[in-house]
Amino acid sequence: MGDEILLELNSTDRRFVVGGMIRHPFVPPPEFGGDTYLMVSPEVMARMGPAQGEFNQLLIQVDPYSEAYARDRMAVIKEQLAKQGIPISVSIYQTPEAHWGRPFVLGITLVLQVLAIVSLMASVILVINTMTAVITQQTDQIGVLKAIGGTTGIITRVYLAGVFVYGLLAAVVALPGGMFAAYMASKFLLNIFNIDYDDFQFSNRAVLFQVLAAVVAPLLAALWPVLSGANISVREAIASYGLGGDFGYSRLDKWIERIGERWLSSPYAIALGNVFRRKGRLLLTQIVLVTAGTMFIMVLTLSNSLSNTLENELNRRGYDIRITFPRNARVEVVEGAAEQLALVEAAEGWYTITGTVLREGQRVQDTAGLGGELYGVPTGSQMYQPNIVRGRWLTAEDTGNVVVISQETAEFNNLVVGDVLTIDLGPIGQSNWTIIGTYQAITSEPIATDPIYAPAPAVVQVTKKTQQARQLLVRTADPTAETTLAVMTYLRNEFESQNIPVNMFTTRTIFQEREYAYNQFGILTQLLLFLAIVMGLVGGIGLMGALSISVVERTREIGVLRAIGADSPTIMGMFVMEGLLQGVLSWFVAVPLALAVARPLSATLGRVILDTALDFSFSYAAVGTWLAAILFIATAASLYPAYSATRISVRASLAYG
C-alpha cells in the first residue's frame, strides 16, 4: 500500500500509486503464468486511452445458475449484439463450482491420502515391534504375575490399558498439532490460488479418523504381541526371554548357517543367523523397511515421470520464442524483422482466430468453457506438434477443412476421428471441418481457449485473411536463456517501434514456459519428496526397535560371548552387521516392488492432474540413492542397540532374568 508502480503505455511511462489489494480467485498467479491484473477507476482508464464508457469485456451473472441456462442466455445476448453489428470474439463460461486449480488440488490430495495410509500402516507395525520389545523385556515379570495368580485376561488388560493411555496422549498431542498444520497448509495452498482462508476450520470426519488412528489402531496392533506374551506359561516365562523358538531347525536356517560358515567370520556368521532367528519379527521389520524403500523409489519415480512428461511436451516445441499480437500483423513484416537477425535460425507467423465450435447446431463443450481458437498451421511447419492420441497430425498434403482437436473436448462430446464440426467465426460466418486427429494437452494456460489446429491454407480460405499473423514463433541458433531473452526483447522493441503492438503477457521464451510449467507442479513434487523422507525415517525407527529387542533377547548370549573373549568392537560389529543385512535385504525386495507399483500409480496421478497417463520414467538414480540411504539408516539405527550391547557385563548378563 502506498508504493508506486511504473507502467509503460504507448511508449509513455506512467506512475500509479497502489491504493489497495484484492483477491481474484479465478486469476492464476504469476508463477503459474498468469497475467498481472490492475484495477483502476473509469476516470483513470480514460486517461490511458479508451474513451469513458468504452469496454471490451461484458461480465454477466445468471440467477439461478446452471450451465444450460447460462449458454441459453449467451445465445440470446450474442444474437442481439450481432444485430447491432457488435461481434463477440470469445464467450467464456465460468462455472462457479469449478476452479481452474482443481486438478492441482486433486493431485495434492491424492499424494496426501497415500501418505496418510502408508503412515498409518507403518505406525501399526512400529506399535507391534514396540509392544513385542516391552513383552520380551518383561517376560520374567509376566511369569511372576502368573505365579501369584495373574490370569491371561488380567495381564492382557494391564498392557492394553497402557497402550490406551499412550494412544490418548498421542491424540492429545496430534489433534491440535494436526489441525494447526492442516490450517497452515490450507492457507498456503489457497493463497497460491488467490483465495483468502483466515477462519480456522476443521473437519469432524478428519478428527474422528485421527482419534481412531491414535487410539483404536494401536490397541488392535498391540493385541497380538500382548496376547502372545500373556498366554505363555510360568515355566516358559522364567526359562526363556519372550516369544518364538530357537534358530537352526528349518531348512532355511540350515542353509543360512552353511553360508555363514563358508563365507563369513564367526561373529558375522552369528549376525547372519540372528537376522533370521525371529522370522515373525523379521517379517514385520522388513514390511516397514520395504514399504519405506518402495515409497522412496516410487515417489522419486513419480517426480521423474512428471518431469519427463513436461520435458517431452516442451521438446515438442521447436521454437524458442513465442511472440503474440493483440491484432493482426503482416507475416512478411514480422518474419522479416526476425530473420534479419544472425541469431535467428527460423521464424514462422501463425494466424489464429477465436470461434465457437458447434455440432449439429449445438455448442460443443470445450475443456475450459472458454470457446475454441482456430490455429492456422503453416504447411510443413516444424515449430510445434502436440501429443497425438487418436488419428494423425497435419501433413503437407492437408489443404482442406480438416482439424485436430483436444482429446478432452472429444471425450466430453463423444467425438471421434471422422466426425464433422461447424466452427462459427462470428462475422466471418460458419464453416464445416472434419476431425482427423485428437491431441492431449499437457501444459497450457490455466485459463485459456481450446486450440484447434488446421492447415493454414484452409484457414486463409475461410477467413480471407492472407499473410496475417497473430503469433510469431522464433527458433534461435543459440537456444540459451540469455540469448532467447535478448532476442525476444529486441524483437518486442522493434515491433513496437513499427507500431505493431505486442501482447506482453503471452510473449515468452521457452525457458519461461518451462518455468511456469514446473511451477504448476512444484508443490506436488515437494510433497512427494517429503513423503520419501518421512518413509525413510519411519524405516529407521522400525529397524532400531527391532535391534533393541534383539539385544534384550540375547543378553545371556552376549554374556557368553564376553566370557569367551569377544571384545566390544566385535559385539558392536555383529549388531551393525545385522542391521545392514536387514537393510540390504529390504532393498532387494523394494526395487522390483517399486517398479511394479510405480507405473500404475504414475498413470493414476497423471489422469488426476493432467487427464492423461504420465510418460513413465523409472528413476534408477532413486534405486542407488535408496541403497546408500538404507545403508546409512541401517548403520545409524544399529549404533544405539549395538552400543547398548557393549555395555552389558558378563556378571549382569548371566544374572539376567
Description of the structure:
About 1% of the residues have low confidence. The protein has 19 helices and 13 strands. The relative contact order is 0.12. The longest helix has 44 residues. The protein has four domains: 80 residues, no CATH class; 144 residues, no CATH class; 177 residues, no CATH class; 158 residues, no CATH class. Helix 5 runs antiparallel to helix 6, helix 8 runs antiparallel to helix 9 and helix 10 packs antiparallel against helix 18. It is of the alpha+beta class. The chain is 56% helix and 14% strand.
Residues in helix, %: 55-70%
Structurally, how many domains make up the residues?
4
How far apart the termini lie comes to 73 Å
For the biggest sheet, the summary is: 11 strands, mixed
Q: Assess the beta-strand content as a share of residues.
A: 5-15%
User: Helix- and strand-based class?
Assistant: alpha+beta
Principal-axis shape equals elongated
The rounded Rg comes to 34 Å
Mean pLDDT: 81
Short description:
With 657 residues, this protein is α+β, with helices and mostly antiparallel strands. The protein folds into four domains: 4-83, no CATH class; 100-243, no CATH class; 278-316 and 520-657, no CATH class; 321-478, no CATH class.
Give the helix/strand layout.
Blueprint: E1 4-9, E2 12-17, H1 42-47, H2 67-83, H3 102-137, H4 139-147, H5 152-192, H6 204-230, H7 234-239, H8 251-263, H9 266-275, H10 279-315, E3 321-330, H11 331-339, E4 344-359, E5 362-363, E6 372-377, E7 387-391, E8 402-406, H12 407-412, E9 420-424, E10 430-440, E11 450-455, H13 456-463, E12 468-476, H14 481-497, E13 508-509, H15 510-553, H16 555-563, H17 568-609, H18 620-646, H19 650-655
Parallel strand pairs: 6-11, 8-10
Antiparallel strand pairs: 1-2, 3-12, 3-13, 4-5, 4-6, 4-9, 4-12, 7-10, 9-10
Helix pairs in contact: 3-6, 3-10, 3-15, 3-17, 5-6, 8-9, 9-17, 10-15, 10-17, 10-18, 15-17, 15-18, 17-18
